[in-house]
């Protein structure tokens, strides 16, 4: 055990001692498969938690006082969230997907007023009216702000809202899809 006396050890010696230790730790972590960098962020990413949107929207249709629709979505879109919350004098049913482009796309359905739905979808963001557009044979009022795009259409007994930061084409696809569906069965009153 011949070496330098302890008093002659420097920070450089400590760094050279730590490098092999850190290399071994990194090798163990990578080999175990328990870590990931998460650079893809796409819908096929297994780190995106799965959510049963079909069951959630069917439950909302039975419990809420307005019609709820279940749109078919592309196979590459992964449902990852859902919620029901009060808004204005009604409720809002939310479902979200991570699309093939890696963007989050939310569908909101509410029996409340348009302004209440916009406020609920926008959260803390400030959004402003940005015009209208036609999708799925219906007029949608558009809002933008803080990088978010919100589209709302009024079907009389329900307002449908979409939220995304992704491409308009995916919002158009979901908007057309939801409008083409009949409302899910409701509980007998």
TrEMBL record:
InterPro entries assigned to the protein according to its UniProt record, in alphabetical order: DUF4245
Spans annotated as Disordered: 166-189
Protein known as: DUF4245 domain-containing protein
């Amino acid at each position: 055990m011949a070496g330098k006396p302890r008093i002659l050890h420097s920070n450089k010696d400590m760094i050279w001692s730590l490098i092999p230790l850190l290399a071994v730790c990194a090798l163990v972590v990578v080999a175990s498969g328990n870590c990931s960098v998460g650079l893809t962020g796409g819908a096929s990413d297994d780190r995106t938690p799965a959510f049963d949107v079909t069951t959630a929207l069917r439950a909302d249709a039975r419990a809420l006082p307005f019609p709820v629709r279940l749109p078919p979505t592309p196979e590459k879109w992964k449902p990852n969230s859902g919620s029901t919350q009060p808004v204005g004098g009604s409720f809002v049913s939310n479902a979200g997907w991570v699309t093939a482009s890696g963007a989050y796309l939310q569908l909101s359905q509410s029996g409340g007023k348009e302004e209440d739905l916009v406020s609920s979808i926008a959260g803390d963001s400030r959004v402003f009216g940005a015009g209208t557009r036609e999708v799925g044979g219906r007029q949608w009022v558009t809002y933008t702000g803080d990088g978010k795009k919100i589209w709302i259409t009024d079907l009389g007994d329900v307002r449908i809202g979409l939220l995304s930061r992704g491409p308009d084409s995916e919002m158009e696809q979901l908007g057309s899809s939801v409008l083409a569906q009949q409302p899910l069965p409701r509980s007998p009153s």
